[in-house]
Amino acid sequence: MAKREKKDLVDKVIKTIKEYHLIETEDKLVLGVSGGPDSICMLNILQKIKEKEKNNFDFVVAHVNHMIRKEAKEDENFVKAYCEKNNIQFYSKSIDVQKLANNNKMSTEEAGRNARYTFFDEVLQKINGNKIAIAHNKNDKVETIIMNELRGCGIQGLKGIEPIRDKYIRPLIECEREEIEKYCDENNLHPRIDRTNFENIYTRNKIRNIVIPYIKEEFNPNIIETMDRLSKLVTEQEIYIHKQVQQIYKEILIEELNQQSIILDLKKFNQQEKVIKSNIIIYTITRLFRTSKGIERVHIEDIIKLCANNIGNKFLMPNKNLKVFIKNSKINFIKEL
Fold it and tell me: What are 126's strand-pairing partners?
């Protein structure tokens, strides 16, 4: 029985990799490995997949010592020893995350995440790699969905964590935390345990340790699977809407100028359903700035109202870098330098 369960998890990850095209031939990956159950499980399974599937891909391991916990150096040494034993190239960096958070007036969580991803990028460039593997699992995805909805993120927030986004891949995203921990036990991996995960200081920890167990006990013992299905449904619908938005955008586009300005046909824009209008605005801004970060629902509503009223002597500035105004029956999105 134990042997079959070990095989099952490896096969599940193989299925995820194939379904979402996470790893292709000749890929060179940076694996973010903290030493905890998720990342050690990911590392161990990718080793097996490389051997089993005879895939011609390669990977190195990157570890960030956050210098917060007294056990941090032990975590680093654990990952280093694992890599040395298995002849895996290992990169590490010590970063005073608390100092980074204080200097930049951000939370410790955000500072730590920024430090990790920045270092992973550095290693990726050093090895001339093309993808970064992060060990997020299905529980992480559901926790993120709940956090998003508590913040009022809307339908977008129901997607949670995606299997692949740009250069970031998540091979364990279809695996639940319980089966990951079981895999570690059965394979004698002895991962490091971050005790701060059990401290209900941060929002995510409260959701993980209080909210989800309560929902499981009182309402739905299969809440993780239920929320995951919802996420996949939302993602499917978003893919469809995105295709529609791309087509309509082409139809109402008048001019794109060197990522400095985009001009749309006002009349054709106003003929669209509100959901399409909202997505066209997001799509347009993303084409200008390569991101829509900082654009909130209120900004989108204001732009839609501006277009509906067709007021030519007014303009909006959702942020200091973007100017939106109506002129000659055209919607102008201008990147302010």
Answer: none
Taking alpha carbons only, the member of 145, 81, 91 closest to residue 118 is 91
CATH class (in words) of the domain with range 232-335: mainly alpha
Residue 25 burial (CB < 10 Å; 0-12/13-18/19+)?
exposed
Class of domain 2-221: alpha beta
pTM: 0.84
pLDDT band at residue 7, thresholds of 50, 70 and 90?
A: low
Count of CB atoms situated within 10 Å of the CB of 201: 10
Q: Are the C-beta atoms of residues 139 and 174 closer than 8 Å to each other?
A: no
- Among candidate residues 38, 2, 54, 13, the one with its CA nearest the CA of residue 187: 2
Q: What is the mean pLDDT of residues 192-211?
A: 88
- Which amino acid does the sequence have at 170? R
For 11, 133, 159, 201, 255, the CA distances from 25, given in Å and listed in that order, are: 18, 15, 28, 42, 39
Report domain extents, the chain. Answer: 2-221, 232-335
Give the integer Cα–Cα distance in Å for 173 and 164: 10
Q: Which residue has the tokens 């309509």?
A: 248
Amino acid at 68: I
